[in-house]
Every structure is written in structure tokens, then in C-alpha cells.
Specification:
The chain is α/β, with parallel strands linked by helices and 482 residues long. It has helices spanning 13-23, 69-85, 100-108, 113-124, 128-142, 179-203, 222-237, 257-265, 280-285, 292-304, 323-336, 353-359, 369-385, 416-423, 456-461, 463-478, and strands spanning 2-7, 28-32, 41-45, 49-54, 57-62, 151-158, 160-161, 173-174, 206-214, 244-250, 270-273, 310-316, 340-345, 389-394, 405-409, 427-431, 436-441, 446-451. Helix content is 42%, strand content 21%. A nine-stranded mixed sheet has the order 14-15-13-12-11-10-9-6-16, with helices on both faces. Helix 6 runs parallel beside helix 16 (463-478).
Length: 482
């Protein structure tokens, strides 16, 4: 299906595209402004009115609430498509990555919760429960927001996975095809770690959190994992009073007793065991080489070793899953009782195998929006049963149903790194292939970025140049501060 839109003012093309993409996320959307006898969508923008028509449906909208031209146009298109399709998208016209920032700004301006909820609905057509979620998260995150430039976090990336999931677009390479690159990669990463250690010590920076993600850090073998974990601990953790050290263990087929013992030995405070689903047929369909029983077994082993802060990731909207699948997953996670649960909405990325199959018509994927909303409600009910609260949230492009990713936690077990990453008030030094360093200039309220090369071989070959570029950017903030 192709969506053709006749638009008389192409200055608003992207704004209108964003709204049509909510309703028709898997369709090709095109614009024209001079076509006669048009039979598809027509959007005519005048000074304070928008006229929209499609087939026999014609509507006009007036900006009676003075919400701003772009917001008004997006709201008009959203209302038209909602009436036409009968679909209910609870976030309304909001497509931004960090909607809780809107709530925090309104809180700081002195608005009450009811006034903020009303604002979200009036301007963005956002449901009450989503607006309240923004308020709750904004209040919680605000108590953690960094306000010292010398406080930093460190991210390390492992670009390998046991296998590549169908929906994945990250820098993750099936390790079976990359074995000759693993040792050189770990040596390059260790070199980057040691240079950053020296820089941190020289500039007297305070490391608040360390986060080892990917990819899957535990996809390498036991000895390789010990090697890189020792390098991280010796250089970035030891004698630095780090508040939090998180490792994404990810999939149970990448874990072993030896790796769990290594995590414990090197003072990891928080691990993430990520089932995504507890339905075996789905796991097989998305390219996972493990079962739900494997997830339960490795979780219990981690408990036996004394890990008392375990996160579990779930994905809502996986291919082939409906409400009953999510209910089963939630019931199994409830039995395990982790300290936090991170709920991700399915995002169909252009670089993923799933997106390619959809384009080639090898796979059709369009879940019912009403059911999708119910699936999210099940995960929220799970969090409540586990006595968890929402503590951070972000949204992505091309999310099925225009939904959200939410982290739930027992109070005191939240991932501080996640909060700092979302709030963007703290410098994050990122190491490894495809890792992006973000330097926060608090006085100027701006952020500068430096991205490492994505391709593993290039990262290995050009590690010295990347270290040099990263140090140069960091010096633009810290050199004159000491």
C-alpha cells in the first residue's frame, strides 16, 4: 500500500509525515503539491484552518486553542486519521524521544499534575495515563540528575552476539563468524580503557557509573570474558568508589557458571538477563538459540551466587505475539521476581532482517492497536505486582503502535546510568566499536558527540585515531577546568 498526500504547503511536509507514519508505519508515504483530480489524501493549510479529505470523508479544523501552528496541523491530521481508521494511539501526536522532559519543564513552571495532564491532551491528544507516566518519571529522574561537570559515566560496548535477532539493528555480529576478530578487538578495547583511565586520573574526574553493554558482553568465551572484565575492574572500578557497575548478560545461551563467578569477582552490582519473551515459539522465530527454561535456570544460578539486583528486558509486539503470549511472559517473570523490568516496544529498524522481510513481502506484520495497548497494560500490571515504579522512559522511531520503552524498578534498585543517559546532563565516555561519547557542557547547555567506528575491523585498525579524537573532544571541556 502506498499513501499519496496532496499538500499545498510543503514546509509542513515532515510534520504531517510523522503523523501519517503513526497510522501507516509500514507503508510508503509520498507528497505532491500540484496534482489535479487527486483521489488520495488531500491536506490544505490556510492561516488558521486545515482542510483534510480522503475518499468521501472531508473535515476542516480550526486552531481555536492557539497551540501553535505545527502542533495544530499535526493535531488536525491525527484527529482525522483517528476518526477514519478507528485506531487509538494513546501518545497522540507525540513522537519525541524524551516526553518526560516536557512534563519536567511544566513542573518547574509550577503547573499541577492535572494542569499538565490537560496540557498533554489539549496540545498532543495524549491519554491521561501516558501523561501521568511522564509526570511520575520526571519527578523520579529529577532527584538523580547530575549537576557536576566532573561527574561522568562510562559505557563499554561488545559488538558480538551468539546470533543476530531478527529485529536487531545494533552493532552486533554473530560471534561464530567473527572469532578471528575477537582477540584483537578485546586488545583494542583494553588499550582504549587504559588511555581513558589515565585521562580520568589526570583530570580528577569522578566515575559515577560503568555500563557494559552491546551486543552481548558475555558472548565471548570464559577466558576472554575474564580478560576484559579484569581490564575494566583494574582500570575503571578499583579504588574509584563507583556507585554502580552494570553488565548486560543478555541471553542465557551466552552465560555460564564461570562467567557469573567472574561478574561476582569483579564487583558487578547489577546484571541484566534479557528473555524478551518467555514463549519458546517466539524465541525460535526471532533467532534465539535458547528456551524459556534456560532463562529460568540461569536466573536461579545468578540468585544462588548472590546477585540481588537483576533486571529483565521484555519486548511488546514481537512477531506473532498477542495478548495471551504477553500474559504468559508476565506470569513467568512474576515467579522469578527480578528487581527491575525494562519493557521495550517493538521497533522495526530499517537495518534489521525483519524490516527487509517486510519490504520483500516475505513477512506481514501489523498487530491490532487495541490488543497492543492491552499488552502494554499487562506489563504495567506486572510491575505493580512486583512493587515497582516507572523510573525512566524513552521512545524510538518506527515503534509499533507509537508506544514507549519504560524501565520499572523497586525503589533503590534503579539503573542510575539509564537515567543519566536519558537526561543527558552528564558526560558519558563511550568505549568500543560504534560507541558514542557525549560530552555535556552544562554552562552552555549543549552536547558534543564523538562516535567510534562501527565496523569491528576498522575499530581495531584505527583505535589510536579514535582515542586521539575522543581525548581532543574531552579536552574542550576539561582541559581548562584543572
Amino acid at each position: 500500500m502506498k499513501i499519496d498526500i496532496l499538500l499545498n504547503n510543503l514546509n509542513y511536509r515532515y510534520d504531517i509525515y510523522q503523523i501519517f507514519n503513526i497510522f501507516y508505519s509500514l507503508e510508503e508515504i509520498s507528497f505532491n503539491h500540484d496534482k489535479e483530480d487527486y483521489e488520495d489524501y488531500k491536506v490544505i493549510i490556510e492561516s488558521d484552518r486545515v482542510y483534510i479529505s480522503h475518499n468521501h470523508m472531508k473535515k476542516s479544523y480550526e486552531d481555536s486553542e492557539n497551540i501553535g501552528c505545527k502542533n495544530f496541523i499535526k493535531k488536525a491530521v491525527f484527529q482525522f486519521l483517528t476518526e477514519e481508521t478507528k485506531e487509538h494511539f494513546p501518545w497522540g501526536t507525540l513522537v519525541g524521544i524524551r516526553p518526560s522532559k516536557i512534563a519536567l519543564d511544566l513542573i518547574n513552571k509550577g503547573l499541577t499534575a492535572e494542569e499538565i495532564i490537560s496540557y498533554f491532551n489539549r496540545v498532543y491528544c495524549t491519554d491521561r495515563d501516558k501523561a501521568q507516566l511522564c509526570i511520575d518519571i520526571a519527578k523520579y529522574e529529577n532527584s538523580f540528575v547530575n549537576n557536576k561537570e566532573n561527574n561522568i559515566s562510562i559505557y563499554l560496548g561488545m559488538p558480538f552476539c551468539p546470533t543476530r535477532c531478527a529485529y536487531c539493528s545494533f552493532a552486533s555480529n554473530p560471534i561464530s563468524a567473527c572469532k578471528p576478530l575477537v582477540e584483537p578487538y578485546l586488545l583494542a578495547l583494553k588499550k582504549e580503557i587504559e588511555f581513558i583511565r589515565d585521562y580520568i586520573n589526570e583530570r580528577k574526574l569522578t566515575v559515577e557509573t560503568v555500563y557494559f553493554g552491546g551486543g552481548t558482553p558475555t558472548s565471548v568465551d570464559d577466558e576472554q570474558f575474564k580478560f576484559i572484565m579484569k581490564a575494566i575492574f583494574d582500570n575503571l572500578i578499583l579504588n574509584k568508589n563507583v556507585k554502580e557497575f552494570t553488565v548486560e548478560c543478555g541471553r542465557p545461551d551466552s552465560l555460564s557458571n564461570s562467567k557469573l563467578e567472574t561478574l561476582k569477582k569483579y564487583n558487578v552490582t547489577r546484571i541484566s538477563i534479557n528473555p524478551q519473551t518467555m514463549n519458546d515459539s517466539t524465541l525460535k522465530g526471532i533467532g534465539r538459540k535458547h528456551s524459556s527454561k534456560d532463562i529460568i535456570d540461569i536466573f536461579n544460578k545468578a540468585r544462588e551466587l548472590g546477585f540481588d539486583n537483576i533486571n529483565m528486558d521484555l519486548i511488546v509486539g514481537l512477531p506473532g505475539e498477542g495478548l495471551d503470549h504477553v500474559r504468559h511472559t508476565c506470569s513467568e517473570i512474576l515467579k522469578l521476581s527480578p528487581e527491575s523490568v525494562t519493557v521495550h516496544g517493538m521497533s522495526i529498524k530499517r537495518a534489521s532482517d525483519l524490516h527487509e522481510k517486510i519490504l520483500l513481502k516475505q513477512y506481514y506484520y501489523k498487530p491490532n492497536q487495541k490488543e497492543l495497548n492491552s499488552m502494554y497494560n499487562e506489563t504495567r500490571a506486572l510491575a505493580e505486582k512486583l512493587n515497582m515504579i516507572p523510573y525512566y522512559m524513552y521512545r524510538q522511531k518506527n515503534m509499533v503502535g507509537n508506544m514507549e520503552n519504560v524501565g520499572y524498578t523497586i525503589i533503590g534498585r534503579e539503573c542510575v546510568y539509564n537515567i543519566e543517559m536519558i537526561e543527558e546532563k552528564q558526560t558519558i565516555i563511550a568505549l568500543g566499536a560504534d560507541a558514542v561519547t557525549k560530552v555535556v557542557f552544562q554552562k552552555d547547555n549543549r552536547i558534543e558527540r564523538f562516535g567510534n567506528l562501527k565496523e569491528v575491523k576498522q575499530y581495531i585498525d584505527k583505535i589510536d585515531a579514535m582515542i586521539e579524537g575522543k581525548i581532543k573532544l574531552l579536552d574542550s571541556l576539561y582541559k581548562d577546568n584543572n
